[in-house]
């Protein structure tokens, strides 16, 4: 599956060919994949450097094709755990559209009868010209079972959160021609975590990937997932990590749209409507608010205030029919993979046969689609965002 990726051969035990811009292949494997992770390059750094009590551990499994990062986040005095590596020679990623990250999905049931929010993370790059490092946010997609692989696309322009020892910089930018460091961060999500990373690949063109299909047994399970996601995302938003809040909300909304069972038609309508109304040109705070209002509308729907076909929004706007294509990342311009083929642009609708969405393996065939309805405006009054 990964044979078309460029792998850097070892030179005296060290990856030597790291200048991706000069690679002949269209995509560039930064680390992981069939060739395995560069095990000796990675190390753990936790918030103990700031007096915190969080923990982190690192293991390489399955012939180094899986990097397992686990630990526990403690919010007393700190709140983060990370794994990181430096590159012995700088990477030039300026010719690439973004990064495809492939992971093992998180089982949605953490304990009997409890559905938890997805885990939000930062993928972070550093360059040799700047003190700050630059992060892009993503959520580990959910699945009914463990060990299912799924991919997320992160555009290069999304690496826009520059920070240095926890302090953000406002007038700084990542130099993609001088990448010398990469790291993964778990931030301010209290409790244990277990992340299984498969590969990081720079790609020339944007791509879109479908969520894994999850079957819900009842609307109560859906409600608990929404409430847990709002709680987790809201906590991150309140700590000024709005991009992590957005990643969690987006991931759960698209997971619910793609669910083959347990999510009502009217609930999908509300989710699709909210995503259709989301402006990708808006600020991070506005995106978080927009997605939060959609989740509030879904909770209202579950409680019996139906926002389904034939109804109107709170401003009296009528529903307009569209089709909804769930995907794992919010990236604008990502080309969906449909029946094994990447189409040229992300359309407003994709025709599909059959009632239920189909599963999608990472960078494989098919994509999950579901027909939804667009609500011209969703206006839900909330006392607090994400709390």
What does this entry look like structurally?
By secondary structure, the protein is an alpha+beta fold. The protein folds into two domains: 10-204, Galactose-binding lectin (Jelly Rolls); 220-375, no CATH class. 18% of the residues lie in helices and 31% in strands. The chain is built from four helices and 24 strands. The strands form seven sheets. The protein has a seven-stranded antiparallel β-sheet. Strands 3, 5, 6, 8, 15 and 19 form a six-stranded antiparallel β-sheet that branches. Strands 20-22-23 form a three-stranded mixed β-sheet, with no helix packed on it. Helix 2 runs antiparallel to helix 3 (265-277). The protein is globular. The relative contact order is 0.14. Residues 1-24, 307-319 and 335-387 have low confidence and may be disordered.
| Strand and helix order | EEEEEEEEEEEEEEEEEEEEHHHHEEEE
Helix content class: 10-25%
Highest-level CATH class of the largest domain? Mainly Beta
Give the overall silhouette: globular
In total, the number of domains comes to: 2
């Amino acid at each position: 599956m990964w044979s078309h990726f460029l792998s850097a051969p070892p030179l005296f035990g060290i990856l030597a060919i790291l200048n991706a811009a000069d690679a002949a292949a269209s995509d560039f494997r930064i680390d992981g994949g069939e060739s395995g992770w560069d095990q000796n390059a990675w190390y753990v750094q936790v918030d103990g450097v700031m007096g915190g009590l969080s923990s982190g551990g690192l293991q390489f499994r399955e012939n180094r094709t899986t990097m397992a990062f686990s630990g526990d986040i403690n919010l007393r005095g700190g709140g983060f755990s990370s794994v990181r590596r430096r590159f012995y020679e700088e990477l030039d990623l300026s010719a690439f559209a973004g990064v495809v990250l492939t992971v093992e999905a998180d089982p949605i049931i953490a304990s009997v009868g409890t559905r938890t929010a997805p885990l939000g993370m930062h993928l972070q790059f550093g360059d040799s010209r700047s003190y700050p490092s630059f992060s892009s946010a993503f959520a580990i997609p959910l699945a009914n079972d463990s060990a299912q692989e799924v991919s997320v696309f992160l555009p290069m322009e999304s690496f826009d959160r520059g920070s240095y020892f926890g302090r953000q910089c406002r007038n700084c930018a990542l130099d993609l021609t001088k990448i010398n460091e990469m790291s993964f961060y778990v931030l301010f999500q209290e409790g244990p975590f277990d992340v299984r990373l498969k590969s990081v690949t720079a790609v020339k063109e944007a791509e879109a990937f479908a969520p894994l299909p999850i079957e819900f047994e009842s609307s109560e399970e859906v409600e608990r997932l929404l409430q847990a996601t709002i709680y987790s995302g809201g906590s991150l938003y309140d700590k000024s990590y709005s991009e992590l809040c957005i990643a969690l909300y987006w991931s759960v909304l698209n997971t619910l749209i793609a669910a083959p069972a347990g999510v009502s038609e009217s609930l999908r309508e509300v989710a699709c409507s909210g995503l259709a109304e989301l402006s990708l040109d808006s600020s991070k705070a506005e995106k978080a608010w927009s997605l939060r209002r959609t989740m509030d509308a879904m909770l209202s729907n579950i409680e019996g205030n139906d926002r389904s076909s034939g109804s109107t929004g709170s401003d009296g706007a009528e529903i307009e029919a569209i089709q909804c294509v769930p995907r794992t990342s919010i990236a604008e311009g990502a080309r969906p993979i449909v029946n094994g083929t990447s189409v040229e642009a992300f359309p407003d609708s994709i025709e599909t046969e059959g009632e239920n969405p189909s599963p999608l393996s990472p960078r494989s065939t098919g994509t999950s689609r579901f027909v939804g309805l667009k609500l011209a405006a969703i206006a839900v009054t909330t006392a607090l965002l994400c709390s």
